[in-house]
Amino acid sequence: IICVPARLVPQVMQDCAIKKVKGVSIISAGFGEADSKGRKLQEEFLRIAKKAGIRILGPNCLGILYPPQHLNASFAPFLPFSGKVTFISQSGALLDSVIDWSVKDNYGFSAMISYGNKSDLDAPDFIAWAAKDPYTKVITLYVEGFSDGRYFLEMAKKVTPIKPIVALKAGRTATGSRAVSSHTGSLAGSYQIYKGVFKQSGVIMADTLTQMFDMARALAYQPLAKGNRLAIVTNGGGSGVMCADYCEELAIELPVLPRELIEKLDKSGKMHPAWSRGNPLDLVGDAGPERYEVALEAVMGSEVYDGAIVIQAVQTSTQPLRNAGILVEVQEKYKKPIIGAFMGGVISEASIKYLQEHGIPNYDDVDRAARAMWVLMECGRHYRRRKL
Amino acid sequence: IICVPARLVPQVMQDCAIKKVKGVSIISAGFGEADSKGRKLQEEFLRIAKKAGIRILGPNCLGILYPPQHLNASFAPFLPFSGKVTFISQSGALLDSVIDWSVKDNYGFSAMISYGNKSDLDAPDFIAWAAKDPYTKVITLYVEGFSDGRYFLEMAKKVTPIKPIVALKAGRTATGSRAVSSHTGSLAGSYQIYKGVFKQSGVIMADTLTQMFDMARALAYQPLAKGNRLAIVTNGGGSGVMCADYCEELAIELPVLPRELIEKLDKSGKMHPAWSRGNPLDLVGDAGPERYEVALEAVMGSEVYDGAIVIQAVQTSTQPLRNAGILVEVQEKYKKPIIGAFMGGVISEASIKYLQEHGIPNYDDVDRAARAMWVLMECGRHYRRRKL
């Protein structure tokens, strides 16, 4: 790890060559991104490194964090929690903010890599590494521009059948891509081309940072869906309707409840007389845990559904913690994906924590829950296609 | 406030008529939404009320909450904080969840109204009330279907030039609107028609619950923008680029920095040599409060910009609380809107609280900040048009 002033870096690189160091991470800034003097310094240390076979991360980067091994080889002030998501970021500032956010939001990472000027190693190299990392289940990527689009395409094609990649591309518009040029000196390239590359290689595109980590959380903790037929179980009619809207917009199917399933639930003696007998399966506002249990058991056990979104609006009879327990149990029993949409707040806080700790991703807003389920279906499709 | 079993409600209504009660709120359920027996009961108490000139909220609703006067005339377990946003909701369950969330998120409301079966009073009546309420600055509305679209259109047209209305319509898709029918017995209607009605009356449409309350927060606490020319000030290049992308997608202009402004900042002695000299105005990662101050002063004082989004990625030299103070001061000085995009987390938490308490809305993700600024510009346009 090199963090001496830029002008001293070539000398340190020379020392590394003598000591037969295999890889270095250069935190120092003031190279290719700064001025012509910096560019020359970068060329100089690169020449030395190439000759000695040294691979380089950076310069002008935050470094590497590897929470499963408690390694913080970066200038970030603290480590995030250990998790199953690797985050590869062209922007160091963004990585810093994400760490700060993740600790507050209880979001875990298996690795975080800020690659700065990518003078040698680039995003595809880190993707290749993450594909082999035993702690990583999902790879997330913030990228402004690629040096070598073809290399990325080849690598991503190899990796996505093994581990999903979710990418956020900045500089998608004319204004944004002008800002990229002024910011990093690299070209953002046409977003249409990126879209094509991502699609061809099975990379999932996110529109926002929140969306990227939302989808990664689902992929990290839930199984992929075997089809796109969803059941929505809810104790709030309105939230159920909104969820159905978002699902239709994402081409998720909501098959009607089969007649035998309606009869079974009617006979259970647990349902409210006014329950919806449809999908969304509305348990009615005063639903206690028994109703959640019998309904969720029914849809998850049915051949008609590939997964479920369970909505909880906190109401007088709601028992958030017991409901959370039911989601965890039923998911373990049927091995199909369940996504929680327990609306967050003071009362529901403990139940949401319970869900997340037991591998059920939960989202405040039903549109985020629908998007999380969509990615499990989309990646499921991708894997099945690759298998054929 | 009536909360006796449904079958007793007509009798209570009779008693109210004798006592010359002017208005009642019926919390009880089991009427029009339940079965034919319930429908008859509803017709019965309506007949009595009409004859006696009694206006009715509900039945089958959560009731009314009025935090500025500490009034909780609902079956929600607690009051939200007092604020400037009225929330009118067709769904009681949603209202319940929103209260729970708002307390955790420090989001204040001037009033919350759940109107259930709308046997008499409907959304437009509550909008008319909120337009006159001294505590309300913004009206938010969750709606599944209108009984009388023309009445809504007329009322909204009158109110939007005085107070902005932000609406979330559920049942926008075929699946969603089928769910509305099964849920409330009312028709959702074509979303295209709703869109037309909203647009014609100057109502802002939200896609999600989060988006609705995000926009309402901006409208409640910041002045409207006088044009759509925005400056982005940031200490993170990547976040600046993403913000520029979202702005372009929302047709927000990002004028380049005027030459005299660049010279002024260059001469200030406060800027990093590598600052962007563009818009986004990138202060570079090690920016302290002095840089934020001189840059924000410059753009807010310039005739070229109608407002600013200020992004803060927490980095080693970042001083979140001092930065927050600068936003508040500069906003008060120039009276143009400022939106914060301080990425939330453990380190930035106190500064975000400071911003919110001093009237600067803050959003975790730059896309939400861009959307909040957009609504200040959009409503500004609407008001100017009405004034002409």
UniProtKB/TrEMBL annotation, chains A, B:
Keywords: ATP-binding, Ligase, Nucleotide-binding. Residues 231-364 form the Ligase-CoA domain. SUPFAM superfamilies: NAD(P)-binding Rossmann-fold domains, Succinyl-CoA synthetase domains. GO terms for molecular function: acetate-CoA ligase (ADP-forming) activity; ATP binding. It comes from the Bacteria. Residues 2-66 form the CoA-binding domain. InterPro entries: Acyl-CoA_Synth/Transferase, CoA-bd, Ligase_CoA_dom, NAD(P)-bd_dom_sf, Succ_CoA_lig_flav_dom, Succinyl-CoA_synth-like. Residues 83-219 form the Succinyl-CoA synthetase-like flavodoxin domain. Pfam families: CoA_binding_2, Ligase_CoA_2, Succ_CoA_lig. This is CoA-binding protein. It comes from Aerophobetes bacterium. The lineage of its organism: Bacteria, Candidatus Aerophobota.
